Amino acid sequence: MPQLTTEVEQHSLVIEIGGMPVRVNTIDPGFLAMLQNRYSGFVGESEDAEVEFDVELAPPNPADRDADVEVKYRFGRWSLSRGDFRAEWEPAARRGWIRQTANPYSIDAVLRIVHTLVLARQGGFLLHSASAIRNGKAFLFAGVSEAGKTTISRLAPPDVTLLTDEISYVRRQSDGYIAFGTPFTGELAKLGENVSAPIAALYLLAKGRENRIDPVPPGEAARSLLANLLFFAEDEELVQATFHSAFEFVNRVPVSRLTFMPDARVWELIG
Amino acid sequence: MSKLYMARNPRVAARSLDGEMMIMSGRDSTLFTLNKTATILWQSADGATPLDEIVKLRICTEFEVEPAEALQDAETLARELASHEILQISEEPIPQRNPTAGESR
After folding, report:
1. A247 Cβ partners below 8 Å, 6+ apart?
2. How do B5-8 and B46-50 pair as beta strands?
3. Which domains does chain B show, CATH number per domain?
4. Of A225, A232, A236, A250, which to mutate for an interface test with B (greatest number of B Cβ within 10 Å)?
5. Å from B92 to nearest chain A CA?
6. Which of B22, B32, B39 is the best residue to mutate to test the A interface, defined by the most A CB atoms within 10 Å of its own CB?
7. Sheet holding B31-34, edge to edge
8. Residue A69 gets which letter from DSSP?
9. For residue range A209-228, what is the model confidence (pLDDT) as tens digits?
């Protein structure tokens, strides 16, 4: 009798960002090696993953290559899709799957989305901002593209630990907020350090002819924070939760405008 | 002239910060900052108090404006807020389970 089944070796990797372990399973050792390289410094060893994804590598689908990201919750299950991937995640079972080509960008997008969904229920969020630790305190530098996130990161002196130059990871704690390093990079293309610290300030970046810090009225602070939040889900409950989280953050963390010129002396104002 | 009643849409999130009322649509995440008059309408939208009474008690006492003109402007504004799904409007009282739905201070 010929053998009808073949045992396929499963490879596995835990990617731990913001203290949340996500296990990724694949049968492709080359893809696993790529992930190990991509998430170097964020590879964990936890046996108890918050989410476990089976990744199925598939050829590209030219029909919906340019489709925008869609995140929907239905019947206890999140459905995530973009032109380059499809994924599902069932929070109660802590399991899901991702179907994508063998590239690091699709799974990176899935991880960002999953983290925003988990954080939204816990009062945290991902923010378009650079962040760094100095003297045991974390500082966030928020702004849209070209606002100066990469520039301020590049200008950081040696005593500063860079958490990210693109997307900050903010987690709520009973007495404040913690920023974690992320592997989500911007132009600097340098992974953040996998460390964390209490957030001391959020700076809204503005390029100018001098280095200065100015207060920001609370309403403007909240609007700016909301404008820089990463959020993908079409889900009223989570939209409302994220909205209130932004206001809680503004009530607890000082928000100022940091006008700066591309000069390392700007860091004399920080920390 | 028929009465107009307003209720807060429970599908939005609202927050007052330093005197500014901000509303976010739960449907498409659009953020609205309400002006003073719109804030009064939002705060007064209990589904039971007719607009003309709100104008008389809250708007005419706050701003120097003729009641008829104030009512006309308030109705235009209420309809605009309704078009953004911030308020629900009706010519009948609107029953509400939770009159402060979506709001947190």
Report:
1. A222, B15, B17, B104
2. antiparallel
3. 5-87 (1.10.10)
4. A236
5. 27
6. B22
7. B31-34, B20-25, B12-17, B103-104
8. P
9. 999 999 999 999 999 999 99
Query: Which chain B residues contact residue A222 at CB under 8 A?
Result: 15, 17, 22
Dihedral sign (CA A34, A40, A46, A52) = negative
Residues A148, A260 contacting (CB under 8 angstroms): yes
> Does B105 have pLDDT greater than 50?
no
- Concatenate the DSSP letters of all residues of chain B into one string: ----EEEE-TTEEEEEETTEEEEEETTT--EEEE-HHHHHHHHH-EEEEEHHHHIIIIITTTS---HHHHHHHHHHHHHHHHHTTSEEEESS----S-TTTTEE-
Which of A208, A128, A195 lies closest to A160 in space, CA to CA?
A: A195
Encoded tokens for A95: 């399991």
Tokens 């000082």, residue located: A254
Residues of A in contact with B104 (CB under 8 A): 244, 247
CA angle A247, B15, A72 (to 5 degrees): 75
**Of B13, B18, B20, which has the smallest distance from its Cβ to A243's Cβ?**
B13
Nearest CA in chain B to A246: B15
Model pLDDT for residues B3-42, shown as the tens digit of each residue:
999 999 999 999 999 889 999 988 788 899 999 999 999 9
Q: Can you name the residues that pair with A77 across neighbouring β-strands?
A: A74
Model pLDDT for residues A136-182, shown as the tens digit of each residue: 999 999 988 888 999 999 999 999 999 999 999 999 998 899 999 99
**CB of B18 less than 8 A from some CB of A:** yes
Say whether A240 and B15 touch across the interface (CB within 8 A).
Answer: no
Number of A/B CB contacts below 8 angstroms equals: 44
Report field, pTM of the whole predicted structure over 0.95: no
Residues of chain B contacting A247 with CB distance shorter than 8 Å? 15, 17, 104
User: CA–CA separation, A103 vs B2, rounded Å?
Assistant: 62
**Chain A environment of B19 (Cβ under 8 Å):** 219
Residues 6+ apart with CB under 8 A from B66: none
Among B11, B12, B15, B85, the residue to mutate for chain A (most A Cβ within 10 A) = B15
